[in-house]
Structure formats: C-alpha cells, structure tokens
Fold this sequence. Notes:
Layout: H1 4-7, H2 18-27, H3 47-58
Amino acid sequence: MLEPELVNTVNPNTPIDMPNLLEKQIKKGKSVSIFPIHEYWLDIGRIKEFESAHDSFSNGFTLDD
Length: 65
C-alpha cells in the first residue's frame, strides 16, 4: 500500500522498483514504514520473473509446497 503522495513522485511511464523508490524517500528525510511478511513471496516485477512464476505454477507448484 502506498500513499498517493508517494505515487505522485514517480513520473508517468517511468520504470522504478520499490527499493529505489523507498531509498529516494528516505534520502529526502521522509518517513517510510514497512510490514514484514513471513509468508511465501515471489517478485514478478520483471517479465523473466513473471514467466518463471507462471511456469512454476503451471507445472504444479503450490503455495503449500
């Protein structure tokens, strides 16, 4: 979940990943909060990662594995 103020700092059609976005905010002295998760997580922010995840799920991978 992101504050609209943070989303509006990114120029339209400009690729940026979450670590860089948050690092920029920290450098500006802005407050950044996180919520740790311990569940399975898979980053699909790049097409190669998305395709890998798709293949894994298509071949019977489940979150319960």
